[in-house]
Amino acid sequence: xxxxxxxxxxxxxxxxxxxxxxxxxxxxxxxxxxxxxxxxxxxxxxxxxxxxxxxxxxxxxxxxxxxxxxxxxxxxxxxxxxxxxxxxxxxxxxxxxxxxxxxxxxxxxxxxxxxxxxxxxxxxxxxxxxxxxxxxxxxxxxxxxxxxxxxxxxxxxxxxxxxxxxxxxxxxxxxxxxxxxxxxxxxxxxxxxxxxxxxxxxxxxxxxxxxxxxxxxxxxxxxxxxxxxxxxxxxxxxxxxxxxxxxxxxxxxxxxxxxxxxxxxxxxxxxxxxxxxxxxxxxxxxxxxxxxxxxxxxxxxxxxxxxxxxxxxxxxxxxxxxxxxxxxxxxxxxxxxxxxxxxxxxxxxxxxxxxxxxxxxxxxxxxxxxxxxxxxxxxxxxxxxxxxxxxxxxxxxxxxxxxxxxxxxx
Length: 410
Description:
alpha/beta
């Protein structure tokens, strides 16, 4: 093939490619960026979207982030001047965060350690918000839009409903303000692309391929045994509140001795009993919440309700109430020396965190073993599958087994 013919073929191919690109509908883009300059990654991302034949940039909304707003706006204006695209509006947005301030960040760093980069607040590059800093590329002659970013965003999605893609490359303060102005704003936008994402994401990672589109538990209908666990959580709340009250009483005894705001409460609730109950109840509400959560989750993980599971949950609840009530009553009577030689078995053994009598301790351990059996029978169908979830389920069962002796030993 002659050189001249080859040139013509190349030119024709390029022309056809250009025509195809022109024939495709361009995606309408709003770039929301903390556009620090000059020529940094923030500005480079703006240039990439502007030069793409697949996009039509409706505007660039700017927000304080890597630098202060006024400096970012000026650098963006100058960038557009240099590439001959001053037709794209530059719209100033939020200059300050909605919640945190510079002083709060400094106090946080004093407590938890310094952060290498905090954008416009970074000490080594800090300058007042109204100063523009260095402009090696030259200062702009064009002006930004008189409209603010939040109202511009709202106006564009109403003008092109369902068509506008918002590329979010900076702090999302402008988006938050737009939603506060118009709660329908998210529904009217086509999509939101976060920094680090892609307009056309592609991946062969099986972890992404197997990710469910919706929460698999969102439409879960509680089984009879799951409904039966509700009362456990009421007991947890009651025990938690009681422990707080006993802690307050115990602490108050350290101020008034035997009094509680002038009332001789120790006559009815001595310090030794208040302190013993305060420590013991902490074990009870923590253990009860663990038991209830396991009983609720197990049928959902196992994929079904074992026969008689609800009855087992109710029996365990009755045993739990008996152990908690009996042990607290026994501790009260034992410390008051009203149990005679039975104090060790039904009163208080005198061990730290295991103040309940030996009988209640044995019953508590038996209840935990019974709970393990209820857990296993609910999880058994999922364990028998031995699929990719087997290892995680096995760890869950092992952690449940470890809970029983740990609670008993405490």
